[in-house]
């Protein structure tokens, strides 16, 4: 999910304020609609059975319809009352209806996933343009084209930035599909079965709309396993794929005039494009400060701190390949080695040792990997977020800033992340408060008093 600290709701989507938008996968506006379907008279020509006799109908339980009128694109199996028509197979198009069998949307069915339907279009969209109804290829063309046009209006790409998020999953109404542009290359992160089954169509649309040199495909194996796919086959295909060539390890991009080497063997799409505005925010805060960048990966926050005028920057990560990439990026930008250094260490052990040594920093960035990949891991993740943020707060100088992040949707969407931070910051021995003027620019900034 998004890599931000506090969640809000925008038209029914769980949205992470500016940082989700900073990937420029903005939440498109979806109008709330009445439960009485307009499909019947406008696009289906009357009786649903006679208009679409072969399309299965997923009938929602009473009280569940409004969730999807509000914009939620994923139908949980627990929200389904019954299925009418032939039993759908995974990958089939289905109609989603209320209890009176009035269609409210259509989507792609999955018999294994807890998301049994990924909604593709709501009824109001079909009213405006029925050409994409039950046509995934036309829908992909329409949605990705709209996403591209939005980025262009926001000034992307630009002379000083050629890395950005082209498609932001639910943010661009293509649940399970993320596409990052890394210069002249496109990288697809697939986390849904329907995305895998439509791979050739997606690649074709991306190539046609972006004129990219090559499309790289990176399936999210853990998520796809929950979608019912045979992960072993995906892993085997990845190893043997001609796309995993030397090109994938030699990509260079520029973001806000800082250059980066990108490794497709690394995290996610190889670059955290959704953190661009957060990195730029840090740059504006770094002048004459000491900066600690925890879970620094390829050095994005650290490099921006240097450009912003930080007097000393320390990046910490437990991954040797990540640190090699960070050091390569330091050299790529010809930064003074005295002002920035990277340390291989477990961040918990590093922080404990720093506290014992009496060290502290003016500005700390804490951006750990996803600690709660699903709701089952939520309780354990809450404890880990509490521990990490508690240590980071203890290392922040009075008057300093802690920029803390979470990319765990299970934490942010339910408000658990902010709750954990509020508990820690209420400790009378370490007083912190959310900086109000910066609250719109997620991730959260805490000020030590």
Distance between the termini: 32 Å
- What does the radius of gyration come to? 23 Å
Q: How is the main sheet built? A: 7 strands, mixed
Structural shape:
globular
Unreliable parts: 1-50, 436-442
As a percent range, the share of helical residues equals: 25-40%
List the total number of helices: 17
**Side-by-side strand order of the widest sheet:** 17-16-15-18-19-21-20
Number of distinct beta strands: 21
Mean pLDDT: 82
Structural class: alpha/beta
Which percent band covers the strand fraction? 15-25%
Description:
The chain has 449 residues and is of the alpha/beta class. Helix content is 33%, strand content 25%. The chain has helices at residues 17-22, 39-42, 48-51, 65-69, 123-128, 136-153, 193-197, 199-210, 221-226, 231-240, 276-285, 300-307, 320-332, 347-356, 378-394, 409-412, 416-425; strands spanning 8-10, 13-15, 57-60, 74-76, 80-84, 93-97, 103-109, 115-122, 163-168, 177-182, 185-190, 214-219, 251-255, 258-262, 290-294, 312-317, 340-344, 361-366, 396-404, 432-434, 444-448. The protein has a seven-stranded mixed beta sheet with strand order 17-16-15-18-19-21-20, sandwiched between helices. A six-stranded mixed beta sheet has the order 4-8-7-6-3-5. It has a four-stranded mixed beta sheet with strand order 9-10-11-12. α11 runs parallel beside α12. The longest helix has 18 residues, at 136-153. The chain is globular.
């Amino acid at each position: 999910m998004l890599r931000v600290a506090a969640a809000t709701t925008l038209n029914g989507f769980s949205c992470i304020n500016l940082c989700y938008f900073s990937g420029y996968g903005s939440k498109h506006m979806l109008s709330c609609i009445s439960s009485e379907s307009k499909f019947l008279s406008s696009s289906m020509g009357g009786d649903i059975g006679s208009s679409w006799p072969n399309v299965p109908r997923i009938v929602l339980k009473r009280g569940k319809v409004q969730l999807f009128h509000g914009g939620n694109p994923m139908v949980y199996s627990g929200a389904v009352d019954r299925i009418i028509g032939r039993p759908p197979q995974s990958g089939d198009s289905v109609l989603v209806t209320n209890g009176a069998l009035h269609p409210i949307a259509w989507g792609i069915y999955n018999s294994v996933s807890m998301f049994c339907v990924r909604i593709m279009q709501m009824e109001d969209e079909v009213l405006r343009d029925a050409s994409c109804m039950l046509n995934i290829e036309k829908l992909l063309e329409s949605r990705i084209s709209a996403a591209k046009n939005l980025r262009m209006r926001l000034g992307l790409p630009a002379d000083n930035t050629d890395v950005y998020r082209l498609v932001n999953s639910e943010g661009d109404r293509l649940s399970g599909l993320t596409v990052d542009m890394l210069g002249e290359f496109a990288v697809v992160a697939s986390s849904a079965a329907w995305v895998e089954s439509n791979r050739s169509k997606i690649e074709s649309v991306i190539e046609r709309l972006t004129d990219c040199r090559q499309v790289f495909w990176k399936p999210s194996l853990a998520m796809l396993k929950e979608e019912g796919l045979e992960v072993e086959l995906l892993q085997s295909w990845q190893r043997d794929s001609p796309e995993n060539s030397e090109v994938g390890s030699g990509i260079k991009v520029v973001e806000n005039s800082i250059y980066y080497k990108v490794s497709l063997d690394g995290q996610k799409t190889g670059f955290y494009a959704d953190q661009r505005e957060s990195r730029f925010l840090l740059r504006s805060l770094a002048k004459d400060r000491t900066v600690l960048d925890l879970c620094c990966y390829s050095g994005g926050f650290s490099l921006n701190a240097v450009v912003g005028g930080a007097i000393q920057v320390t990046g910490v990560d437990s991954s040797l390949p990540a640190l090699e990439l960070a050091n390569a990026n330091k050299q790529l930008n010809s930064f003074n080695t005295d002002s920035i250094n990277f340390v291989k260490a477990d961040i918990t052990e590093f922080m404990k040792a720093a506290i014992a040594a009496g060290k502290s920093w003016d500005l700390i960035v804490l951006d750990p990997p996803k600690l709660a990949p699903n709701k089952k891991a939520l309780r354990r993740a809450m404890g880990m977020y509490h521990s990490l943020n508690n240590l980071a707060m203890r290392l922040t100088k009075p008057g300093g800033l802690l920029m803390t992040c979470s990319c765990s949707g299970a934490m942010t969407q339910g408000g658990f992340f902010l709750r954990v931070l509020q508990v820690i910051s209420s400790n009378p021995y370490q007083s912190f408060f959310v900086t109000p003027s910066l609250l719109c620019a997620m991730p959260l900034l805490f000020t030590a008093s």
